[in-house]
DUF72 domain-containing protein (Flagellimonas allohymeniacidonis), 299 residues
Amino acid sequence: MKFGKVEHPELVDFTIPKDHPDTEILLSPYKNGKHPEFFVGCAKWNRQDLKNFYPRGTKDELVYYASQFNSIELNATFYRIFPAEQYQKWYDKTPEGFKFFPKMTNEVSHLRRLNDKVYEIADRYLEVTSLLKEKLGTIFLQMHNNFNPKNWDRVVRFVEYWPKEFPLAMEFRHTDWFNDEKVANELYHLLQENNIANVLVDTAGRRDLMHMRLTNDEAFIRYVGANHESDYPRLDDWIARLEKWKELGLHNIHFFVHQNLELESPLLSAYFIEKLNKQLDTKLHVPQTVIGGKTQTLF
């Protein structure tokens, strides 16, 4: 994941901004003592990217990955709409309780940019994606970096068209969505009224995307490590923030770990899960691997 990459991450201020002032107000209706659901995973399960994660002799990468993590941010669906049988295979290979969080095809977000032609494409995408059944988590739509508020009407039409039975998260990357307070508030209101999560992206070169504005009871966080020692204290800070949001009423925490060089993603994820288990009383499996015939936790 090259987005937000910098040459000198040691010079970046990774401090998580204060909560948006509307966070506590937004979460208060959800505050009922219910323990939140946590889904933590990587962005892909490819052996070439996640080097040294798979034990020698692993025949099916997804089967092993799903034995170690409870979710995947499915980036493959950004590049094409797979045939129905592929979704059925993914469903069959993963255990009960596992969830896929697929990325909307780039035909909708990048090539046609939410124009009037995207609705038939979105319908085709949802037709096959729905084959994941109860293993389908939130679908996320990532807009192009240069998709700006001049396209507001397109966003409104798409949000109003979107079938509400499919949970959706949206990621906006153009700075004008957040720099202009009037635009930002209109966007937040639109997402909130339609129960759409506002994606948070934590990456070195785009600190402006840390708007910290939740729009429903879901925190959909895409964390991009810098392959630097600062990656771990950054995760510690997220643990503290999520603990606070949990106390305020947050019910759904979806946290996906990326790296500029993905080979360390399972290691960072294991560290994060272990910390979650200790500080937020979760009981997630800590990912393991097999080295020299011995099972070892990654962290």
In short: Residues 231-248 form the longest helix (18 residues). Residues 9-297 form a domain with the TIM Barrel fold (CATH 3.20.20.410).
